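Lab notebook: predicted structure, single chain.

Context: the supervisor wants predicted structures on file for every construct in the current expression panel, including those that have not yet been purified. This is the next one on the list. No modifications to the sequence; it matches the entry in the shared construct table.
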Amino acid sequence: MKAQRTYVLTGTASGIGQATKALLERAGARVVGVDLRDAEIVADLTTASGRATLVEEARTALGGAVDGVIACAGVGGPGFAPETIVRLNYFGAVATLEGLRPLLAAGEAPSAAAVVSVGVLNDPDAFLVGACLAGDEETAVRCLDRPEAAYATTKRALARWVRRQSVTPAWAGAGIALNAVAPGVIETVQSRHLWDEPKARERQQARQPFGGIGAPDDVASALAWLTGRDTRLVTGQTIFVDGGYEALRRGDDIW
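Prediction complete. Output recorded below exactly as produced.
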């Protein structure tokens, strides 16, 4: 058994991705970060060329094998175009996971995780979910009926993709675990609009009764566990790291 675990992790320039990279490296892992800046691999995952760059440079950097892949890169909230949200949150994440799957198959105790959101509980744009799961990127960005639903819908589609793919021969059959983590409101720059005013912060604290608004490290620890060497028999799951928000929202509806 090799001493150092290797990872490819997207979205490492800030927020949850940055915290996860730091946590894994403190544990002795080698992490190849991917982002638009300040990363080992600089690539725009909203584009086909950027996705190809990620795969090729990761293969070169890691010698054709990787133990863990975490698709963390994503955007949402004010200031982001719906097209960017769709291309990055769903298609960029899927391209990361699928593109690096051959490297995972050559890794040790391989596992992958995607970062979704408690937004998966919101009412989705059903047409967009269908276009995403069909792999039809151009239709997805062209025919979004409700732009305000782009973030939650792309996260819902990604969680569904993870669940469907996790038990296929390409993933489970190859011994690769595939899961998702759904953060609640986390104190990052991107989510500032949800908590930066006292009344808004109070509302979010009430929705997350266990621990209130979270920190990036809270999500990082869950991602590290899910993609660790010793996590066995866990696949196809969406793990909510949300201070109890999902339990409040859904109550007894767990099936």
